Amino acid sequence: MRISKIDNIDMASKTLLILGKHFFSGNRLDKFIDYEKKYLQYTKNIDISPLMNFELRRITNIWVITENKQILGAMTLNFYLWESIENQYFFYTDSNNHIKISHIVAKKFKNIIDEKIHPVNKPTLSIELGYYAINNEFRGKGYGRLLFNKFIQEVESLNYDGKIAFVTALGYYALSPMGEQLIQYLINENVNNENENTFLKPILEELNFPPDLFKVGVGSSPTSRFAYKSQFTSLGFSKHLGQTWGKYYL
Fold it and tell me: What is the pLDDT of residues 79-100, one digit of tens each?
């Protein structure tokens, strides 16, 4: 068994196809592959100069776990400058359990990190565990945990002052537009006050959204479990309706 970083376009295309099939099909799968390719970097060590020069918004590496040349699973790691994502909005809730959520508000990422982990002193890099999956026939054998550990190792090996690592466990309704619509609704409602929590149930009824909107996606529970056991902090939910976890390396 081997975990390695993809270093060429042919292997990247093959791996993105395998990885993407866990989330998309048809034209959406093709768009996913083409979109991810725009940000791929194949160098041995991460080079953030395209971020610093504002040539790219993010840089992506693909990691693959193989055995006897067979792909067992894969993940993408996305690298951002903190300033490019600190103002993104997330759902800040009164519970990590989607069944128990009663109040909700849209908050900027930087304010959530400040409140739940530590005040941010402009870290150089933010590293996201992006798309992440083990092929069905190899699940339950510990390969997902090995990939998650590799994600942590890569973050810890980066020689930059201040790093924020984060991961989102895919929500059941992740591919629908409801998350973005709800974020915009909350921003408009609480434009002057991020701390003004709102009852969730009436909003869902008004928008005709399902009551289990923040339900965990099929197969996503291990991601939250790995994050929790790795001492990541639950930050809320992303616009894709999945639970987001983060860790600040000071």
Answer: 999 999 999 999 999 888 878 8
Distance (Å, whole) CA 112 – CA 200 = 19
Q: How many whole angstroms separate alpha carbon 17 and alpha carbon 140?
A: 22
Q: Which domain holds residue 74?
A: 2-249
Rounded to two decimals, the pTM is 0.94
CATH number at residue 33: 3.40.630.30
The two tokens of residue 27 are 């034209």
Q: Where are the beta strands (DSSP E) in 43-102?
A: 58-67, 70-81, 89-93
Taking residue 249's Cβ as centre, other Cβ atoms within 10 Å add up to: 16
Structural domain count, the chain: 1
The strand order across the sheet containing 103-108 reads 2-5, 58-67, 70-81, 125-134, 163-169, 243-249, 233-237, 89-93, 103-108, 198-199
Q: Is 1 exposed, middle or buried (0-12, 13-18, 19+ CB in 10 A)?
A: exposed
Are 3 and 150 in contact, with CB atoms under 8 Å apart?
A: yes
Residue count of the chain: 250
Residue-wise pLDDT tens digits, 171-210? 999 999 999 999 999 988 775 566 667 899 999 999 999 9
Q: How far is CA 56 from the centre of its chain?
A: 18
Helix (H) or strand (E) holding 155: helix 143-157
pLDDT for 96 equals: 82
Q: Half-sphere exposure (CA, 13 Å, Cβ side) for 13?
A: 5
